[in-house]
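Field: COMPLEX_INPUT
Field: COMPONENT_COUNT = two
Field: RESIDUE_TOTAL = 322
Field: MODE = joint
Values follow.
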Amino acid sequence: MNENKIVFKVIGHIQSPHIDPKQTPIQPVFCKGIKGKAIIEKQYIDGLNDLEGFSHIYLFYSFHESNKTNLILKPYLEDKLHGVFATRAPHRPNKLGMSLVRLIKVEGNILFIGDVDILNNTPLLDIKPFIKRFDTRQNARSGWQEDVTDDEASLRGKRDY
Amino acid sequence: MNENKIVFKVIGHIQSPHIDPKQTPIQPVFCKGIKGKAIIEKQYIDGLNDLEGFSHIYLFYSFHESNKTNLILKPYLEDKLHGVFATRAPHRPNKLGMSLVRLIKVEGNILFIGDVDILNNTPLLDIKPFIKRFDTRQNARSGWQEDVTDDEASLRGKRDY
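Field: COMPLEX_OUTPUT
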């Protein structure tokens, strides 16, 4: 394998009510209650043991509808240009998406998930548990995002859903 | 491209004091103050604009020293078996690592980072800002991790560093 490339396998797919990228909420916090499923390839089913103990999980996936890279772009929440690495926008050098969703239950190879902001049929790459002691940062400074009010963020973040 | 594979480009590398996987702390919370750098390929430098406004960033990388997959394993913090997706262990179907590190400053294509738990020479795939309103979950339930005390976690999580 070329050492400048990393190849990942698709381990499953997302099922969600979001079929139009333009109407898909931009983050789980903007679509509370929206449900979907992660269908995991059966060969990986043993890896799901004990996942159900976690109320929230990170899903990592490919932004499979993105076919361009914008190093400088206007994010959904603000009409100002920012570097893509200072945003969560999909049009990145690597189309790696991350969503922190609610885990409702696990049945066999199916994860029932809530607060789903992921397009239907999205290829899944990894699942990691949200662990409070690892993943919480008090007093974090959030850059340009702090110039966007919560109301404005909620209004724009929901998009047309 | 085979639709069951996703190919990512290496966008940079991590420089850190960790040269032995067995002595590398398992999470940023267990190595506060340990400094490193992310050296970004110069073609992506525009993507770093405004990143410095964020105090914490997620780094996504390849666990390049992992050459096996264990669907069931004992994590570093506990001598009990769990499914790999209920852990943050490196030996996953896709060797995708995530670390939430401190961003100290940005100079050109170099990110100066703190709380670094990443092996030296690790290939970097993506950078995303930690955004309080997106990434915080109150009252999250952390599964088997809640059976590990903070003291035990700290002791085992630092490893031999």
